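We modelled the chain as a single entity of 268 amino acids. Its sequence is:
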Amino acid sequence: MSPPSIIDIGVNLTHRSFAGDHDRVVDRAVAAGVTTLILTGTSEATSRAAQALAASRPGVLFSTAGVHPHDASHCSAATIEALRALARQPAVVAIGECGLDFNRDFSPRPIQEQWFEAQLGLAAELGLPVFLHERDAHARFVELLRAYRPSLVDAVVHCFTGTAAELDVYLELGACIGITGWICDERRGAELRKLTARIPLDRLMLETDAPFLAPRDLRPRVSRNEPAYLPHILAAVAAERAQSIEVVAAATTATARRVFRLDTRSAG
């Protein structure tokens, strides 16, 4: 029996650990049933690279265009214009990864907020969903997101690892939730495992965040995460929800196709 078709909504295929290995990584993913990958842009340079990779495998690869809060210090009005131009390419399906990260503070917080707001405004202007990052910044992140939410077509909280109260706020805002291999981490994933069943199926999506967050319970253990491991995350999510793998696969795939409007894209 062939594996169920699923979508990985967050793959950092432009990361240096994948250099020279892009085609093999994508081929392994497709063979494992991960038939669609959305490549994450985290700066102007990686957004351009992700778009170019996506255009090389139309219908299989798509991409986002954005500036991660870590890189906010390097953002400018010209960067936003570059993202606007990139977003006109058929393979680009969202603005982001953008948001706030008050854990590392690689960029000053006021600068993070300035360019987060600029990208929220860009997503609203272009009618694209926004692909979001938040770490240790929930209150301010929600304050900014709430102001723009009525103008946004969709919002995806990428790699959710928060509390029940935080999840409730995101759901109240109509956001979708991305679940990664964090759920497979026996040290840190206990809270996420408990919360997974609370996410409505039409708001739930799956992602590896490859090459990061390799599922810790994979055997043999791996150091570089790949989209081919997404079925392992799918199985963990289905188990916590007490639903079949087939049901969760079909629902998360339908949700991703709807939110990123994949059926309207003639990528290339």
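As a brief sanity check on the tokenised model: The longest strand covers residues 92-101. The mean pLDDT is 96.
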